[in-house]
Design a protein that fits this description.
The complex is a heterodimer.
Chain A: E1 3-14, E2 17-28, E3 32-36, H1 43-50, E4 58-63, E5 66-68, H2 73-78, E6 81-84, H3 96-100, E7 107-108, E8 111-112, H4 114-127, H5 143-155, E9 161-165, H6 173-188, E10 192-196, H7 200-206, E11 209-214, E12 217-223, H8 229-237, E13 255-264, E14 267-275, E15 279-284, H9 290-297, E16 303-310, E17 313-314, H10 320-326, E18 328-331, H11 335-338, H12 346-356, H13 369-383, H14 399-408, E19 417-421, H15 429-444, E20 448-452, H16 456-462, E21 465-470, E22 473-479, H17 485-494
Chain B: H1 2-15, H2 17-35, H3 48-73, H4 81-98, H5 103-126, H6 132-151, E1 156-157, E2 167-168, E3 171-172, H7 176-194, H8 196-206, H9 208-213, H10 218-244, E4 246-247, H11 255-265, H12 277-296, H13 304-328
Antiparallel strand pairs in B: 1-4, 2-3
Classes of the chains: A alpha/beta, B mainly alpha.
């Protein structure tokens, strides 16, 4: 088999972190080559280097035996590299054809050459066996059809190498099959495919070769026929677990939160119990319905079926404010979008839930700024929020300190059920450790804590039990001796056979 | 030491936008004092009668601006106040002149009709979930249209039936717009700054999603502010009707944009979360003084609109420059 693309000792560092260190492997001509690894393994950095978005610090890339430099995305395109992104990035108000040529319209002295573009668009759609008129507005397409248009957009430039970046995360099971057929079509056209995914089943169905990356290092490249699921998971996870000091054995108290066959947007039939004094983790890949589940429990998203009980009370139909008043708190996944109000200063952000619920700490009739400052100072001390003063602008705080504010605003209300969705995403190591400590303290004080996280080491360090979700369903619970990363990955990625 | 004081002053200005708006107002009055000074004669600008006049006219804008600024702080916009003012004057005038109802009753009913338009806007924005711009544009059309249907092209003259030196609660009617404006501005400024409801209006304007995630009943807050928008516009209409003795369908046209401009000059941001009631009322006074003064400067009659437009833009530019500086430090 001819070597189409070769990577030799490719390294890339961002500041102090090495995203890729001396990665070498080759991709055969006309094959579907899968690239797997956990979050942060270096998959996307590698992809961005191939697309000319980043430049490698060391090493070289050879295309058909000749070294090439990929200085920018335009160069990548001219070398014959195309990419299909994870998110759908189409303009819904424009037609398929207009989307395909967006930014690269064919023209003659500024006048669009519609007939030529239509011809090329029809060819691309034909190649993917899509029976669609290129003039159809994208807004009229289904999600899988839109995904196909994304692929058509990449093949319109007749690439030799097509990179797929987790293309199935937004797709349903049957549209995944459509996608696979399209990829097999491309393979017949002698197009080389680099397929990035962490869904193992897909790799066994689709790929000829697989490369495993872990912590920026190349672990192995081998034919898919020579590996099985367990071996692959082991290669992906394989490192020593970085456990921070675990909590001692806890005796869970009474049931604080009970979820009974709950269904909502993006998940269905989920049941579990959460007891006082325990930390329950929720693991799963992005898009598995974790965030939707906790937001539904908090009343932000609607329940379609099932019940939620807080203590003994059925809160399924109650408002966010009512739930918060009964002692439930949620730290949302997206801190900027759903956590912070940037037009208000630090102390006002900290006091908001208390103010909404009429907490007496801020004064009876009117809000006293002095009392607000006093409460804010206490919270800031407790969480070690580094800020100029209680009147500091939220923009001036670091990500870690902003996150502490989003957590801290609930502390005054002493919630009995504390839900944290990705509590340490994108914050520095020091703040992360402090938030972990806080979560343990909350549980030690007898609160029931639910933690959603994409980082398995974090869940393993914090949680007493871990629920694993996949595609909106609860795949199982990991606890006690079975508590290990591989088991969770197996449930999250492959499911129970 | 001096630097510390400078920073303190700068902080004071950044936190309390009303101070700089008041300073601009003072500067404006000083400029007109210089321009209109004529040796040996009483000053035509700086005198009690003229100030009463300024307050009488600015009060109509200012009272409506209280509600409008609350809506803008919540992240919305209201295009209806001018039309609602007109409808209120027409309904009050019709009931008083044609139906021979006593003035207090006619005024009350006129006020309730205006309040009803606020209710309609609140309904369209929070229940039907129309964008505020479209919802209040619709309300504007409906209110102005109803006013024309009722008057059939004419107008109601109330002045014949209102006594020459009419006064209410021992306060001559000419003093009412200014007095009401100042009193309501202070009350609702304090309401917005110091109460739970006011804080939640600011929160919704700053980040609706984050407010919802913190337990704020976003729809209830929005309903409340649009209702307030109708309330203050219609109060302004009743006062206008009695003070000027007319109920006209074409009165207060274009006020909505002047009121929005006054709120923005007073420190409100059209993207929500920022601004104050006091700032908006001071903004209305800036425009009132500007119009009054320009009308007295000979030879500037045709320049009035141009100058008003330039002043709005310049004040907002200065504000943006100072805010940007603040953020850099």
């Amino acid at each position: 088999m001819d070597k189409f693309l070769e990577l030799e000792q490719v390294s890339k560092a961002f500041g102090g972190t090495r995203a890729l260190s001396r990665v070498s492997f080759s991709v055969g001509q006309g094959l579907v080559h899968a690239l797997v690894g956990e979050n942060g393994a270096g998959k996307s950095t590698l992809m961005k280097i191939l697309m000319g978005i980043h430049q490698p610090d060391e090493g070289r890339i050879l295309l058909k035996g000749r070294p090439v430099s990929i200085a920018n995305p335009v160069k990548a395109r001219s070398l014959g590299f195309g990419i299909v992104f994870q998110e759908i990035e189409l303009c819904p108000n424009l037609s398929i054809m207009e989307n395909l040529f967006l930014g690269g319209e064919l023209h003659h002295r500024g006048f669009m050459r519609f007939r030529e573009m239509e011809k090329h668009a029809a060819e691309a759609l034909n190649l993917l066996r899509l029976k669609l008129d290129p003039k159809t507005p994208v807004s009229e397409l289904s999600v899988p059809q839109k995904q196909m248009v994304q692929i058509a957009r990449a093949i319109i430039y007749k690439p030799d190498l097509l990179i797929f970046d987790e293309p199935t995360s937004a797709l349903t099971a049957d549209s995944v099959q459509h996608l696979f057929q399209a990829i097999k079509q491309l393979k017949q056209q002698k197009i080389t495919v680099l397929y990035i995914s962490h869904k193992l089943q897909e790799i066994f169905e689709l790929a000829d070769m697989v490369t495993v990356l872990r912590d920026g290092q190349h672990i192995n490249t081998l034919p898919v026929s020579e590996v099985n699921e367990d071996k692959l998971v082991q290669m992906m996870v394989g490192r020593e677990l970085e456990l921070s000091a675990r909590r001692g054995e806890v005796k869970p108290g009474e049931v604080r939160l009970r979820v009974e066959s709950l269904s909502g947007r993006g998940f269905s039939k989920i049941s579990f119990e959460l007891r006082a004094g325990e930390v329950l983790g929720v693991a799963g890949l992005v898009g598995s319905g974790r965030s939707e589940l906790v937001e539904t429990i908090f009343g932000v998203l609607p329940v379609t079926e099932g019940r939620i009980l807080l203590g003994a009370e059925d809160i399924t139909r109650h408002s966010v404010a009512y739930r918060a008043g009964l002692g439930m708190a949620l730290v949302p996944e997206d801190r900027q979008f759903a956590g912070i109000i940037f037009t208000m200063v630090l102390k006002q952000n900290l006091s908001l839930p208390g103010v909404v619920l009429g907490a007496r700490e801020f004064g009876r009739l009117v809000i006293s700024g002095a009392r607000e400052s006093k409460v804010a100072c206490e919270t800031m001390q407790k969480l070690r929020v580094v800020a100029g003063s209680p009147e500091a602008e939220m923009q001036s705080l670091s990500g870690g300190n902003q996150q502490k504010v989003v957590i801290g605003k609930w502390l005054l209300l002493k919630p009995s059920v504390f839900i944290l969705d990705e509590p340490t995403r994108g914050i520095d190591v020091g703040a992360k450790a402090e938030i972990h400590k806080l979560i343990r303290e909350l549980a030690d004080q007898g609160r029931a804590v639910l933690v959603v996280s994409s980082e398995l080491p974090e869940l393993l360090a914090l949680a007493d039990r871990i629920l694993v979700m996949r595609e909106g369903r609860l795949m199982g619970e990991v606890c006690g001796e079975r508590r290990c990363e591989q088991e969770i990955m197996r449930l999250a990625v492959a499911g129970v056979e | 030491m001096a630097e510390g004081k400078l920073k303190l002053v700068r902080n004071l200005f950044a936190r309390h936008r009303e101070i700089s708006v008041a300073l601009i107002l003072g500067l404006e009055i000083f400029i007109f004092y210089l321009l209109l000074r004529e040796p040996g004669r009483a000053h035509s600008f700086i005198n009690g009668d003229n100030f009463l006049m300024i307050f009488k006219y600015s009060g109509i804008y200012g009272i409506a601006a209280i509600g409008a600024s609350m809506i803008i702080i919540s992240g919305g916009i209201d295009l209806s106040p001018g039309a609602v003012i007109a409808l209120t004057t027409v309904v009050t005038g019709h009931l008083f002149v044609e139906s021979n109802l006593p003035l207090p009753l006619a005024a009350l009913l006129g006020f309730l009709v205006g309040l009803g338009t606020g209710l309609l806007a609140a309904f369209l924005v929070t229940i039907i979930k129309l964008p505020p711009f479209i919802a209040t544009l619709g309300v504007m059309g409906v209110a102005r249209g109803l006013a024309f249907i009722i008057t059939k092209g004419g107008f109601y003259d109330l002045s014949q039936k209102i006594p020459e030196h009419f006064s209410l609660l021992h306060l001559p009617i000419e003093y009412w717009p200014g007095t009401m404006m100042v009193a309501l501005a202070v009350i609702f400024h304090l309401f917005m700054v110091y109460t739970r409801w006011g804080r939640q209006v600011h929160a919704v304007g700053g980040n609706e999603t984050a407010s919802y995630f913190s337990g704020v009943k976003v729809r209830r807050i929005k309903f409340f502010v649009y209702l307030c928008g109708g309330l203050f516009a219609s109060l302004s209409g009743v006062i206008l009707c009695i003070v000027h003795g007319q109920g006209r369908a074409d009165v207060a046209s274009g006020y909505e944009l002047d009121i929005i401009a006054a709120s923005v000059v007073g420190g409100a941001s059209l993207s929500g979360g920022k601004g104050s009631v006091l700032g908006a009322v001071l903004g209305s006074l800036i425009f009132g003084v500007l119009r009054n003064g320009l009308s007295q400067v000979t030879g500037l009659t045709f320049y009035e609109r141009l100058i008003v437009g330039v002043v709005v833009v310049v004040i907002v530019i200065i504000d943006q420059l100072t805010v940007r500086k603040e953020n850099k430090i």
